[in-house]
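Bug report (template v2)

What were you trying to do?
Predict the complex of my protein with heme C.

What happened?
Run completed; filing so the output is reviewed.

Input:
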Amino acid sequence: MPKLHLRRFPTVAVLALVLLALSACGGDYPNSTFSHHTELNDGAVFLWDRMMLLGTIVFVVVEVVLVYTIFKFRRREGGPAPRQIQGNAALEITWTVIPALILVFLAVPTVRTIFESQRKAPDGAVQIEVIGHQWWWEFRYPQYGIVTANELYLPIGRTANFSLRTRDVLHSFWIPQMGGKRDLIANKTNYLWFTPKADLTSSAWNGACVEYCGSSHANMRFRAFTVTPAEFDKWVAHQKTAAAGSPAAMPAPDTSTKGAAKVPVKMAGMPGMPGMTATATPAPAPEAWVFPLEKMKAFTLPSTPLPATRFDDALLAAGDPKAGREIVTNVAKAPCLTCHNIKGETQYLNDDQAKGPNLTHFGTRHTFAAGLFRTDARTLALWIKNAPLMKPGSIMPTFGTGEYNALMKQKVTAGGLDDKQIADVVAYLLSLK
Ligand code: HEC
Ligand SMILES: [Cu+2]
């Protein structure tokens, strides 16, 4: 047995503590909340620094007095009995007044920051409705008529005003580098706003649910993209449009002839007056702009392991988006539109009834299933085959024929999709740029 060197223990302990503290100064901490990217984080970091400073002063003073007292007044062999004291008004007043002052120094800025963060958002903010679902995030931009999921676009230099609601249980919204956390509470709307600072560049950030909300709570993440106002406008212009392949999607401008073709447009009449038909030039569909994948740093890319399910890559490569659309948009073939909305296709649900993410521009999202997976053909095929296998508890059904459906506790027989059909569905979903 090694001999215990008790005398060395304090030295070793101090060294270990110093090492532990230093290890925190090492790497690049992408999810650190001690950033200064928004005024909300500025406020929180200021309070933290102030609290740390005052707390450290109190700690040091108390420890020094304590250790001094222990040594100075320790019992000595043959020493006299200590002097007996009863009460010391001056001392008691001092140790009441000093903590009270310290609390004032903490309370005033804390209360000020709380009021500041609860203030109405400045005019001109981009309004974003955040709706928590078990276990994914819905984001709506009511000013622009956009409904999307799991990926948030925030214009740099412009305040984002979030209204937070939940469709089911409690969740909490947090983008550590930007600000939060704020809870999503049933039957109540909470608000939160912050402004990505003007010195930011186009970047991707991690967000997460930080209130335990059930079996896939840890799988309820999202991404936030801070983009320049010009990029944001381009993104908005495209996201507003109807889904690719839908009857409502504008025909692409014909570049082979001079100018675009004139098409008759039926305009609704005023009440009591007949409508009329005019010719109009269809607006060219705005070019899709999405946050460039190559700008997503490693820590914002999902790395969730995939199930070992096999899928024929040749089938995937041959997937036909038209055939896929026939399946996805036809409730007689598959029930996708009884849970998902796709703008421009037959709509059975209003936004509040939809149980799953809006798929209108699904193909422009780099990640899916609340930031768990990269949007690529293979991963998506496995997802359509058996989503609950990849995300425990998810109500996205198991579609693969022969797959075990954990929710129904049985194998999928009738109503399932074979691998060829799934490959077509995947091709369609990826075409939803
Ligand atoms: C019972 C309702 C329901 C039906 C039916 C359904 N889904 Fe889903 N789907 C969901 C839910 C809920 C999610 C969100 C899962 C999660 O992230 O936890 C989802 C997620 C998805 C996603 C990922 C979206 C994203 O951005 O994260 C895709 C793609 C998808 N479903 C496609 C389909 C297709 C294709 C069909 C039809 C073959 C279909 N779904 C049928 C409920 C449904
Ligand atoms: Cu949650």
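What did the reviewer find?
DSSP finds eight helices and 16 strands in the chain. Residues 266 and 272 are 16 Å apart (CA to CA).
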